[in-house]
Amino acid sequence: MRALLWDGTTARVGDHPEPVRDQQTAVVRVSLAGICNTDLEIVKGYMEFRGVLGHELVGVVEDGPSEWRGQRVVAEINFGCGQCPLCQRGLQRHCPTRRVMGIVGADGAFAEKVAVPVGNLHRVPDGVADEAAVFTEPLAAAFEILEQVHVQPGMECVVLGDGKLGLLVAQVLFQAGARVLAVGTCTAKLDILCQRGIDTVMFDCWRGAPADLVVDATGSSRGFAAAVAATRARGTVVLKSTVADSAQVNLAPLVINEITVVGSRCGSFAPALRALQTNSVAVEPLISARLPLCDAAEALHLAASPDVLKVVLRP
């Protein structure tokens, strides 16, 4: 089969062995796969991954248990051992020996097919188009903030970054009743939020008034310092950026202002799928380009452009 392979130096589309399933896995034929910032950071050296890239997908189960065959699905990306205390608590995403699709030790979704543990599969509700369903994984990551932080109606929240994840986070916090200000660098991207009634401002015009909750979704090692500076005393900073670069961190403001720092990664798929089904979060306006898998290497370069949001691949 064809797949986008990363060897540590070059990303290229080539032949790759088809995935082989066992009793715990299913083979999914990929319908759409989305490029995210983590994929772009991997080709800069993040996680030292080698193999097939990609972890955002929607597809159809081609081979697996009979009750799953032919089902349209999305898939959680963390493959836990299933036996350790964290897995037993339902925290497979933190399993110490986990593999992560397209990121750590497991081939990803920029391919015609991908093998996924059956327990990671979720059926896509009728009425949710593939171009919406492909956002399930990043939207789940946005909803994870609501599991980690008690967001009260009227809470003042700032979202730094107008990339794909930042736009999703701003919408999730807004629908939770927060007073959201999204700070970005691209008017066209921020306009997506303006159309949903969310306040926005360009970085150059932002005065940095302190907020209760500040989310760093800049995708930059410099985002953390900006987030801390914008957080009021006893407020919370949520880190959503995964970057290859190391950040210089001044811990003094965290101590002096008693700021809580929350690392936030993957989330549960159920709230994301409900939001897609009810259209309470707009995702399809975030698609900038649709390209065939044969152009996947070029698609990575396109996805890294500052004015581009989501690029999706169609095997």
Can you describe this structure in just a few lines?
The chain is an alpha/beta fold and about 325 residues long. Helices cover about 25% and strands about 30% of the residues. The protein has two domains: about 1-135 and about 285-315, Quinone Oxidoreductase, Chain A, domain 1; about 140-265, Rossmann fold (3-Layer(aba) Sandwich), CATH 3.40.50.720.
Verbal overview:
With 315 residues, this protein is an alpha/beta fold. The chain folds into two domains: 2-135 and 283-314, Quinone Oxidoreductase, Chain A, domain 1 (Alpha-Beta Complex); 139-263, NAD(P)-binding Rossmann-like Domain (Rossmann fold, 3-Layer(aba) Sandwich), CATH 3.40.50. Helix content is 24%, strand content 30%. It has helices spanning 37-42, 85-88, 130-133, 136-148, 164-175, 187-194, 223-229, 252-256, 269-278, 296-303; strands spanning 2-6, 11-15, 25-35, 51-52, 56-63, 72-75, 78-79, 99-101, 105-106, 113-117, 121-123, 156-160, 179-184, 199-202, 211-216, 231-239, 260-263, 287-292, 310-314. The strands form four sheets. Strands 3, 5, 6, 10, 11, 18 and 19 form a seven-stranded mixed β-sheet that branches. Helix 7 (223-229) links the parallel strand 15 (211-216) and strand 16.
